[in-house]
Design goal:
Layout (H helix, E strand, L loop, with lengths): L2 H26 L9 H4 L11 H12 L3 H13 L1 H29 L5 H8 L2 H29 L16 H26 L3 H21 L8 H17 L6 H25 L21 H9 L6 H9 L11 H24 L10 H17 L4 H35 L4 H21 L5 H29 L5 H30 L7 H24 L1
Helix pairs in contact: 1-5, 1-14, 3-11, 3-14, 4-5, 4-12, 4-14, 4-15, 5-13, 5-14, 5-18, 5-19, 6-7, 6-18, 7-10, 7-16, 7-17, 7-18, 7-20, 8-9, 8-11, 8-16, 9-16, 10-16, 10-17, 11-14, 11-15, 11-16, 12-18, 12-19, 13-18, 14-15, 15-16, 16-17, 18-19, 18-20, 19-20
C-alpha cells in the first residue's frame, strides 16, 4: 500500500471518530450550549476568559502537540514496524486518547474549572488527591528527563547525507544555534509587546518570518555552539530553571505563539510530503513481537512507547489547568477536547511517515534526527533540493521547539505541585521547588550514559498513560455519582491501567534482575525499577480510595 493511501485511511478514521463517536460522547455528557461555563460566570480577565472556539482550539492544540507524538511513533516503528504503530495511533486516539481529553475537559468545566487532582479530591478523597499529586510530580520529572536528553542528542547529531554538501557544516550545531536564536527572538518579542503593545498582526508579520531567518542563520554559524551531549543536557535544565521563574509575558507566551506557527508549518509540510512527495514505504510493516533491549515485547511496550501519539495523561493537566477556564460554551468541548487529540493523532502519523520512507539501515538515528531529516526532505518540495541543509535544520529545530514548550510547562507544573503539597508560596519556596524539579533530572542524566534517553522513555510513557488511566478513573467515579452512564470512560481506563501496570511490573522485574546480578543502586535501570514500584504504589492508593 502507498503512503498517501494509508495516511488517507487514517485521516478518514479520525474524521469518522470525531463525527460519530465524538457526537455520542457529547450526548452522554449532556452538553448544552445553554449551560453557562466557568469562563463566563467567573470571568476575571486573567485565567477565566471566554474564548472563541477557533482560537482556543489552536492554543490548546499547540499546548498538547509537543514532542511526545513525534518521538514515540518513531521509536516504536524502529522496534516493531509501522503497522502496529498505525493501528494503535488510529484506534487509541479515537477510543481512548480523545475520550480521555474530552472527559477531563468536560469534568473540569462542570467542576468550576478545577484541575484533575481537585476533581479526584472532590469525588474520591483527600488521600487520593495527595497520591495523584505526588504521582503527577514524578511523571513530570520523567517528562523533563526524557525530553532534555533527547533534545541534547539533536544538538550534537550529524546526518550523513549532509556531510560534504557544505564544508564544516555541523547539523547538531546548526540546530543548537537556531534553537538558541529562536529563544532570544521570543524574548525580544515579549519585551516589545510589553513595552509598546503593538498590534498582534504586526508582531506576527515581523517575527514569524524572523523565525525562519534564525534557521537560516543557524546553518551559517553551525560550528559556534559545539558541546557534548551531557553539557547540553545540563544547559537545557538550567534554561528550564530560569524560564519557569520568568514572567510568562517575557518568554512563555511569545515562544508559545511563535511555536504554534512552527507547529503548523511542520504540519503543512508533512501533509505536503506525504500526499505529493511521491515517497515509497521502505520500512518493514512488522518486525518482531519481542524487541531487544529495554523496549521489550510488543505487549505492553508498543502502547507506552508511542505514548502521546495515542493517549496522554499530560493532556488532562492542560485540559483542566487552562483550557477549561476558557471554554465559552459547552458546545465547544467536542472540537477542542476531542478534536485536538485527533489532530495530534495525525501529527503522530506524520512523524511515523518520516521513518516509513527510510530503509532499515537509515532508520537508526534518534527520533529528533529522523523527524528533522524527514520534514527536511518533505520541505524540499517547497524550497528545492539545493536548500536541503536549511530544510533539515528547520525540521530538527521544529522538534526542539516542541520540546522547549513541553519542558517549560512541565517545570512550571512541577513547581506548582510541590508548592501546593507543601502549602507554601513565595519566591524562596518557588525557587526551591523549581530546583527540586530540575535537580532530580540533572542527577539522573549525570548517572546515565550519553544518549540514555531510551532508558527513561518507556517509564515516561508508562507514567504518562497511567496518569490518563487515573484521570479516567476520577471521571468515571464522578459520572457514577451523577447517575450517568460511564462505560465509555471505564473500559478505556481498564485497558490503559492493565497495559501500564504490566509495563511497570516488567520494568521492576528487569531492575531486580540487574540488581541481583550485581548492579549498583545507582544503576539507572535499578533506579527506574524503584520508581516503577513507587508509581504502582501511588496508583494503587488512588484506586483503593476510589473503591471505598
Amino acid at each position: 500500500m502507498s503512503l498517501p493511501l494509508l495516511s488517507g485511511i487514517l485521516l478518514l478514521a479520525l474524521f469518522l471518530g470525531y463525527h460519530f463517536y465524538g457526537r455520542f460522547l457529547s450526548r452522554s455528557f449532556r452538553l448544552d450550549a445553554k449551560n453557562t461555563t466557568p469562563a463566563v460566570t467567573m470571568n476575571d480577565g486573567v485565567d477565566y476568559v471566554p474564548t472563541k472556539p477557533f482560537y482556543l482550539l489552536g492554543q490548546h492544540f499547540s499546548a498538547i502537540a509537543a514532542a511526545g507524538p513525534i518521538a514515540g511513533p518513531i521509536l516504536a516503528c524502529q522496534q516493531f514496524g509501522w503497522l502496529p504503530c498505525m493501528l494503535w495511533i488510529g484506534l487509541g486516539a479515537v477510543l481512548i486518547g480523545a475520550v480521555h481529553d474530552f472527559s477531563a475537559l468536560v469534568a473540569s468545566v462542570r467542576h468550576r474549572g478545577h484541575s484533575v487532582a481537585e476533581i479526584v479530591k472532590l469525588n474520591i478523597g483527600k488521600k487520593a488527591w495527595f497520591a495523584i499529586m505526588l504521582f503527577i510530580w514524578v511523571s513530570l520529572v520523567y517528562v523533563i528527563i526524557a525530553f532534555t536528553d533527547i533534545t541534547a542528542g539533536t544538538f550534537v547529531g550529524r546526518i550523513e547525507e549532509l556531510e560534504g554538501m557544505k564544508l564544516g557544516f555541523e547539523r547538531g550545531g546548526a540546530v543548537a544555534a537556531a534553537s538558541t536564536l529562536y529563544l532570544l527572538l521570543s524574548i525580544v518579542m515579549g519585551l516589545i509587546q510589553k513595552k509598546w503593545n503593538p498590534p498582534l498582526w504586526l508582531l506576527t508579520v515581523i517575527f514569524v518570518p524572523a523565525t525562519l531567518g534564525v534557521v537560516w542563520l543557524g546553518t551559517l554559524i553551525s560550528s559556534w555552539l559545539l558541546l557534548p551531549a551531557q553539557a547540553w543536557s545540563l544547559t537545557i535544565l538550567l534554561y528550564c530553571f530560569v524560564a519557569s521563574l520568568l514572567p510568562v509575558w517575557l518568554l512563555l507566551q511569545p515562544r508559545g505563539y511563535l511555536g504554534g506557527f512552527v507547529l503548523y508549518m511542520a504540519l503543512a509540510v508533512g501533509v505536503l510530503g506525504i500526499f505529493f512527495g511521491g515517497y515509497e514505504i521502505r520500512q518493514d510493516y512488522f518486525k518482531t513481537w519481542q524487541a531487544p533491549g529495554l523496549t521489550g515485547s510488543l505487549f505492553p511496550f508498543l502502547f507506552v512507547t508511542i505514548a502521546c501519539g495515542a493517549c496522554s495523561g499530560f493532556h488532562g493537566l492542560v485540559c483542566s489547568g487552562t483550557t477549561s477556564k476558557q471554554i465559552a460554551s459547552e458546545a465547544d468541548c467536542r472540537p477542542v477536547g476531542y478534536g485536538a487529540m485527533l489532530l495530534e493523532g495525525f501529527v503522530a502519523m506524520i512523524a511515523l511517515a518520516t521513518i516509513m520512507i527510510l530503509s532499515n539501515g537509515e532508520a537508526k538515528g534518534s527520533p529528533g534526527a529522523i523527524y528533522g531529516a524527514g520534514i527536511g526532505r518533505f520541505m524540499t518540495l517547497l524550497v528545492g533540493k539545493e536548500n536541503l541543509v536549511f530544510a533539515i535544520t528547520f525540521g530538527a529545530m521544529a522538534f526542539s521547539t516542541f520540546v522547549f514548550d513541553t519542558l517549560d510547562v512541565a517545570t512550571r507544573l512541577g513547581r506548582y505541585i510541590l508548592q501546593e503539597l507543601c502549602g507554601k508560596t513565595g519566591r524562596l519556596t518557588a525557587g526551591l521547588a523549581t530546583l527540586a524539579t530540575v535537580g532530580v533530572p540533572a542527577l539522573f542524566l549525570l548517572l546515565a550514559k550519553e544518549g540514555g534517553w531510551s532508558l527513561f522513555w518507556v517509564l515516561f510513557g508508562t507514567s504518562n498513560q497511567l496518569l490518563a488511566a487515573l484521570t479516567l478513573l476520577g471521571v468515571s467515579v464522578w459520572l457514577k455519582k451523577s447517575g450517568r452512564r460511564y462505560w465509555f470512560t471505564l473500559f478505556p481506563m481498564f485497558f490503559v491501567m492493565t497495559i501500564t501496570f504490566w509495563s511497570l511490573g516488567k520494568q521492576a522485574l528487569a531492575a531486580y534482575g540487574q540488581y541481583a546480578a550485581g548492579a549498583a543502586l545507582t544503576n539507572i535501570t535499578v533506579i527506574n525499577g524503584g520508581v516503577a514500584l513507587l508509581l504502582m504504589g501511588l496508583a494503587l492508593g488512588v484506586i483503593l480510595d476510589a473503591l471505598r
